[in-house]
Amino acid sequence: MAKRLSGLQKEVLHLYRASVRVAHTKPKQNQPHFINYIREEFGKHKDLPKRDFTTIEHLLRVGNKRINLYSSPELKDIN
Amino acid sequence: MFKSVFRPCAAVAKNARMTLPVRNSILMPQMMVSPIRFYSATTDRNEITQRVVDVIKAFDRTNASADISSKTLFHKDLGLDSLDTVELLVAIEEDFDIQFPDKVADELKGVEDTVEWIANHPESE
What we know:
Helix content of chain B: 55-70%
Oligomer: heterodimer
Number of helices of chain B: 7
Keywords (chain A): Chaperone, Mitochondrion
Domain Complex 1 LYR protein (chain A): 10-67
Main location (chain A): mitochondrion
CATH superfamily of the largest domain in chain B: ACP-like
Family (chain A): Belongs to the complex I LYR family. SDHAF1 subfamily.
CATH topology of the largest domain in chain B: Non-ribosomal Peptide Synthetase Peptidyl Carrier Protein, Chain A
Protein name (chain A): Complex 1 LYR protein domain-containing protein
């Protein structure tokens, strides 16, 4: 991470951080499921070009919506 | 940060003054002491470093877990990418029961930075 990150890259990291924090609010034994899910979802777009702003912005919105959805305390596990 | 510490104290002090005017002088010094104790409890850097290292060792993504010192950098020495670093920092947050603000967390690159920040933020334990 020696290089400077762009604003958009930081936003992605913030989304990732928020996601991991949500995962930590879930029951202990299910936390790995959430972490794996987060890694998978972010990993799907790992090779997206840095300049593809519209796609990244779209994915950020999708991600934020999904965090809201998964933050609900009734949701305890994921597959 | 400090407001939240002092405000309840002030409220208690006010109550104490109204209900127990005589013991006022006895109560006040105690209230002044407690925030100071609150500070010194966690500034032991070696202890914080040890705890951070333990969290890193427990983290499943690290590739060079054998020798972690205070100079270890997450990206260079542990081979973590930016997302792994985020995950590791959240794990550290959990352990110390704190939250790095986004801006701070973006700048934390190694064990030393992290310990320094925790040592300067006494609400952690």
